[in-house]
Amino acid sequence: MQIRYLVALSLFSQFAMAGEPPADTVSQCLVEPPVPRPEAPVSGNAINKQLISISSESSEAQMGKEAKFQGNVTFKQGQRRIQADEAILNQQDEKLDANGNLVFQDSMFTVTADSLVARMKSNSATLKGAQYWLHGQQVHGDAKKLEITPNNNLLLTDTNFTTCPPDDASWLLEANKIKIDSSDEWGEIWGAKLRIGGIPVLYIPYMTIPVSDKRKTGFLFPNFSTSTTNGVEVSIPWYWNIAPEYDLTFTPNIMSNRGLFLKTEFRYLAGEAQQGKVNVEYLGDDQKLTGHPNRYLYHWEHQGAIDENWRVLANYTGVSDNNYFNDLPSDVARATDNQISRVGEISYFQQNWNTSLKVQDVKVLGETQEPYQVMPQFSFNYSSPDMWRNLDFAFHSEVSNFEHTSTKKGYPTATRVHLEPSLTWPIYGPAGAFVSEVKLYQTNYWQRDNRLQPELASHVSRTIPQARLYGQINFERHTKLFDENYRQTLEPQVQYLYVGYQDQSDIGIYDTAALQDDFYGLFRDRRYSGLDRIANANQVTVGMTSRLYDSHNEEQMKFSLGQIFYLEDNKVSLNPNLVEETPSFSVLAAEMDAKLYQDFYFSGALQYDTKEKDNKKTEVTLDYRPGANQLVQLSYRYVPDLLNTNTNNRVDISQAGLRTAWPVRDDLYFVGSWYYDLKEHRSVEAYTGFQYESCCWAVRLSYHYRINTNYDDKFDPVDDRAQFESGFYLNFMLKGLGGSGPLGVSKMLDQGLFSYRKPLYLKN
């Protein structure tokens, strides 16, 4: 004989999956049932094939009629068990009655009840006065009556559930009736009343919830905030589960100072290996700006693999104005993003070669002169490692067509064909490395419509050779510092680079810019990105890196220092009208990462002009990180003579910052940051936030003050816009009732213009 109705109860094990706590709080938050649970789950089919064993202190039975069991009655079937003081099994009616300290248990959940009545013919059961606990989760609750229907559905009458511990009434959802549909795996709730701190705050006549990991259409938790520019903001997201491969989130965002801001995000899956999303945002009649303009955004991104060899990528964004991201809380980009990338690419990969076809357009917000568009670019790359006697061969080629949106104003367009073969002979070993490389740049340009730049030639053929020699030696020694044993390395590096010269003033600038002169940049073979300018070189780079390892072979310090010595002057520049300085050596670049003492970490980078005795760039951070979510960071950065793209003026940046995250208690965290402009003598950003997170709910209250990045656009003049913005933000979540997951201290550290960047690669 098998008790088939037990299978239906296993459906309840997935109830309120959203209530699962984060991994780091499971041990503190789990609500354990009153009896030990089985250790390993067994599938339903396997359980049905297992025999049932019944034990009790005493029993009375009539063959084929009725059997009575009394005293510590236990029914066992695999991992499932029913315990009761008394049980009666009626074989004629196929009915089981059990009562007195009744406990039902399987590998997934535990139910205690006053009584149980089960009918095997109809595959149904009723438990009265039930209390349930889900194993491994926080969910538990009471039910006056729990029924298992012949269709294996569950009906709970006069019931409730929560994810809080039994002695914590932070929140409780009460309901007149809950129905769990076993086929659709959805729960329907009638007469739901939400209590927070014992006080009823919300009544919902009817709602549905998922009882598995399936998605469900419905409202998500609202968000609240206030700011000096947008006023009071209230957003109520609505989620639509269209199909297993499609969903949509629609978010009305009411801003008292601007109006109704509508956001829509549509996500899709295209087979097993491709995915994408479409965003549409719209604010009609912006009340904050003169003329009440309409503001909007549209965005599409797609990526994935067609098969083992083909890859596709697409990303396109359009906005109504330059200050869209500065003014509105978009889901696509942050206020610190000033570039919009529009790219479409399809690629094919094989073991030794790949090819791709790409179109690209980059819009720089606030810039009057737009970059060139790549329409299109075809590239082919081939590599043959160890082609002959440890000799590596590589070949890069591309055909690019550059267009411009302002061609009618006289901006030239061009087609570029570039071939770049190279031979490399690398030698690597424990004692060091030696790499010799020869490369050839062969480029042809066909330039058109050069009315604004008549100096550009209609056709240019450029051939430039390059040779590079790089060597590194590894020395190490054992040393003792502060009574600790260490292994110190000394890694001197030398590179000789020769690049031939050719006059390139008759070539336009289509995709080229100057590269950063940090320590690793000293050993590059290029001064400019892109291919429109290939700077001549006859130079030697000398550098050194020293590392310090502790007895566990973990890196505790790294220091690098280097400089380029020019044997010939650079004759190639981005702007032929400007005479660039031709020093005999580059800036002295230094970088250092170190664990100073226990939980103190230092990171710094310096670029120093040894000829002019002038500091060209400085970045310094000092971290104190004694544990998880414990941080105090002091930072300073100095960058002189930086171009302000808004005003085209040169400015010096000198900023100091403080960022901290610290637990006030086990469940309460503080996060704060402050950045001060030492040149302008003003705060540029301040952030203060408190987050409380318990086992069953979380709340974050924060204050933000920051400088606005205002660009010129077709609406209000920049001078009329607010230079600074401040506001309060409130995020609230009940665990087990949806939401976006734990708020997280790390997310608070990423708030604002200066998001936290752990500056070290050293292990803690």
Shape: elongated
Individual helix count? 5
The overall strand count is 41
Mean pLDDT: 83
**Range of strand content:** over 45%
Instruction: State the secondary-structure class.
Output: mainly beta
Short précis:
With 764 residues, the protein is mainly β.
Q: Any overview of this molecule?
A:
This protein has 3 domains: 6-216, lipopolysaccharide transport protein A fold (Sandwich), CATH 2.60.450.10; 369-586, no CATH class; 590-764, Porin (Beta Barrel). Helices cover 3% and strands 58% of the residues. It is mainly beta and 764 residues long.
Which key phrases capture this entry?
764 residues, mainly beta, lipopolysaccharide transport protein A fold, Porin, 26-stranded antiparallel beta barrel, 12-stranded antiparallel sheet, 5 helices, 41 strands, disordered N terminus
Q: Topology of this structure?
A:
Layout: H1 6-9, H2 26-29, H3 44-48, E1 53-55, E2 58-61, E3 66-77, E4 80-90, E5 95-105, E6 109-119, E7 124-134, E8 140-148, E9 154-161, E10 171-181, E11 186-196, E12 199-210, E13 218-219, E14 223-227, E15 231-235, E16 238-243, E17 246-255, E18 259-269, E19 274-283, E20 295-305, E21 310-319, H4 324-327, E22 339-349, E23 353-364, E24 373-388, E25 391-403, E26 413-429, E27 432-448, E28 459-473, E29 475-481, E30 484-499, E31 537-549, E32 555-566, E33 588-597, E34 600-609, E35 614-627, E36 630-644, E37 649-665, E38 668-677, E39 682-693, E40 697-707, E41 724-734, H5 745-749
Antiparallel strand pairs: 1-3, 2-3, 3-4, 4-5, 5-6, 6-7, 7-8, 8-9, 9-10, 10-11, 11-12, 13-16, 14-15, 14-41, 15-17, 16-17, 17-18, 18-19, 19-20, 20-21, 21-22, 22-23, 23-24, 24-25, 25-26, 26-27, 27-28, 28-30, 29-30, 30-31, 31-32, 32-33, 33-34, 34-35, 35-36, 36-37, 37-38, 38-39, 39-40, 40-41
